[in-house]
Amino acid sequence: MRLDELIQKVEAARLKRSEHLIVQIVAVTKYTEDIEPLKRLYNEGQRAFGENRIQVMEKKVDALKDYPIEWHFIGNLQKNKINKLLSLNPFMIQSINSYEIAEAVDKRAKKPVRCLLEINSAGEDSKQGLAVEEAVETYLKIKENLNNINLQGVMTIGAHIDDEKEIRKSFRLTYEIFDKLKPYGAKICSMGMSGDFEIAIQEGSNMIRVGSALLNSYL
Ligand SMILES: *Cc1c(COP(=O)(O)O)cnc(C)c1O
What is the pTM of this model? Predict the structure, then answer.
């Protein structure tokens, strides 16, 4: 779908939740190594892009360095790639999925980096992220101890299943954690992808990460 159409769908979904809810769209461009689709999206107003592979991201950051783009890293972060990622100066790392990784980023960063704590809200073994029960405690521990991790909120991938009730449940659990963390400065609740962003927004998401549904129209 085109960006305009996505924006209209987001608009309808957010009004079902609250007229005060503002939802940011991160266009996930990990499916292409070509920068033309990103330029097309940029020309229609898109500014936030999500990538999950550092090498591919590096090429795009380099090719688009004259564009005021916000780069969001959404992939599983390996320790030996952290320095490379930091050198790209990402706007935000959405995939801090353990205290250990937060510590590793903190140690290597020369200034505070915006980050989200990834939560494994569906409890699926195949997924990264903190268990729901550990999320609040870990978030507060990072905040307390790691000065270069500027935690801004939480991120999750919804349950990978066709059952809307289960998907909704994983978003609801994540929103509950977000709600508990608001007094500690959490502002972003990043949840919802191509197949489930409308459900995520109804459950309170204020940042969606949409890839395939959007990118197909720009390749
Ligand atoms: C790939 C990916 C997305 C986008 O997924 P689509 O289903 O293509 O919209 C969002 N978030 C993360 C963490 C991803 O890896």
Answer: 0.98
